[in-house]
Specification:
By secondary structure, the protein is an alpha+beta fold. The protein contains 18 helices and 20 strands. It is found in: Cytoplasm.
């Protein structure tokens, strides 16, 4: 493959030289997205709510870097022969492989291993930040996305797993998702591990099996059977190589991971009949304990046992759980889409041991922030900051910039969002600018107003409605309210009068 430099002439790095053909195309890579001010505010509002719930449960914040050594992250995503598969990786000057983190859990294991002696046990932390997956994007599925994690390290009891399932339900309801519009599904990986042990599936193929089962609710039994066998071709024609199991082994895997009907007690009774391995028996006992705890906490209607939940990451060793939005969700084109899990996790007792050699019990849950926000917005929630933009002080006389700047400072000192128009356009274009900024009002002071010691305040929201008023008296009344003069000394009071009209 040629480098970018091979396509450039020796003069292309000089200003004003080089042909137009060497200009880069302004395009966004697939699976990535830009975020507008409204989206950022919506995300921040949602994160603030999540943080409040996580803090209520006693978790403390932690931050770790976006880049880790690849071997420290571990190759828990597909194709272990290539560090670049599933994750975005590169080599540094010392030829060491570095990777962008694909989740927040693997970096936590490295942090705990480095600081284990000084940490309180159990150690409870939450963290939010972007993660990266070198995977095929889809609806609500991006290559870069935010996660918000809570983890408990050093707690061997599955009571810690049950608590995280309860945390998921409380978080969803704090975000405005009512009961019945979400469900938390929980299973134990030990049940499937027992089946895979019994049919002799070695470690190299286990991840392929896990990722196949993880697609059960999206592809159905037929699609999963293909992925457990020779492979599957999707709608685009891309072929995914399967796990290579024979028909009998596929039947055993499907039987132990198919969704079951009934309440938690009924599902557990059916699992007892399906699982005849020692590991499976341990997993069922874990699920019985979790079911008992969520029943005692009053969560049994929202936290359900579902054997189809296995999670696609290889490091899980016990209970695993996923939170799904249950309403039918349609995109902007009216097409039904399925978001999948918006909050998930599980127990990973062996992850810290990769560094220390000693098994450290740990469990965690992760919010897929981008995907959850995407779903909530399609459900009519978290539209973003509905408040107006800043008040704009227009520039009528360019030789009086200092005077206009003092007005802006006066407004800011009063806690009012304000900006001075810094462009070079005339008044008409300045008004259009203020409209685009979503400004509630503008401040105008020409030479006549300056002589009288006044400023004009124009309410842009009210002004936009004047053309719809047919009654003349009503029109004149609203017109007087939409633009009025106040003494310059009462600038804050005049602007506040407009802002008060639109307070929630």
């Amino acid at each position: 493959m040629k480098s970018a430099a091979s396509h450039m002439s020796k003069n292309d790095d000089k200003p004003g030289q080089g042909s137009e053909n060497t200009r880069p195309e302004a395009r966004l890579p697939k699976g990535l997205q830009d975020a507008s001010a409204q989206e950022i505010r919506a995300t921040e509002a949602m994160l603030a709510t999540i943080k409040k719930v996580f803090e209520l449960y006693g978790f403390e914040p932690l931050a770790s870097p976006a880049i880790e050594y690849t071997d420290a992250l571990g190759k828990f995503l597909p194709d272990e022969d290539r560090p670049n598969a599933g994750v975005f990786s590169f080599q540094d000057d010392d030829d060491q492989w570095l990777s962008l983190r694909y989740d927040l859990t693997a970096p936590l294991a490295r942090y705990v291993a480095e600081n284990y002696q000084t940490l309180p046990k159990p150690f409870r932390r939450y963290q939010t930040g972007p993660v990266w997956r070198n995977e095929k994007p889809g609806p609500g599925r991006f290559r870069q996305f935010m996660q918000f994690d809570a983890d408990t390290v050093g707690a061997p009891s599955v009571a810690a797993d049950a608590e995280l399932c309860m945390l998921a339900t409380d978080t969803m309801e704090a975000l405005g998702v009512p009961r019945g519009d979400y469900v938390v599904k929980v299973n134990s990986r030990k049940i499937l591990d027992g089946v895979l042990d019994s049919i002799g599936i070695e470690d190299g193929r286990r991840l392929t099996v896990l990722r196949a089962i993880d697609k059960f609710d999206r592809l159905g039994e037929e699609g999963v059977r293909l992925l457990l066998g020779e492979g599957r071709k999707d709608e685009s024609g891309d072929f995914t190589k399967g796990a290579g199991l024979d028909a009998g082994d596929i039947d055993k895997v499907i039987a132990s991971t198919s969704p079951l009907s009934g309440g938690n007690d009924a599902v557990l009774d059916q699992l007892v009949q399906l699982s005849d391995t020692e590991a499976g028996a341990e997993g069922i006992e874990e699920l019985k304990t979790i079911a008992s705890l969520v029943e005692a906490g009053g969560y049994a209607d929202r936290i359900v046992i579902d054997p189809s939940i296995v999670r696609g990451l290889e490091y899980y060793t016990g209970p695993v759980f996923e939170t799904e939005l249950t309403p039918t969700i349609k995109d902007q084109r009216g097409q039904t889409i399925r978001l999948g899990s918006v909050m998930s996790g599980g127990r990973y007792d062996g992850l810290v041991a990769r560094f220390t050699g000693e098994r450290v019990p740990a469990t965690g849950i992760s919010v897929g922030v981008s995907r959850l926000l995407f779903g909530l917005q399609l459900l009519g929630k978290y539209k973003g900051d509905e408040s107006k933009g800043p008040v704009v002080v227009l520039v009528f006389d360019k030789d009086r910039l200092g005077n206009y700047q003092r007005m802006v400072k006066t407004l800011r000192d009063a806690g009012i969002r304000a900006e001075l128009y810094l462009g070079s356009s005339g008044m008409k274009a300045q008004m259009k600018y203020a409209d685009k900024r979503g400004s509630p009002c503008v401040v105008i002071q020409g030479g006549d107003e300056k002589e009288r010691g006044e400023v004009q305040i124009k309410d842009l929201v009210l002004g936009a409605t004047l053309t719809k008023i047919e009654d003349r008296e009503e029109y004149l009344k609203k017109q007087a309210e939409a633009q009025f003069a106040v003494p310059e000394a009462d600038l804050v009071g005049g602007v506040s009068k407009v802002l008060d009209r639109y307070k929630a």
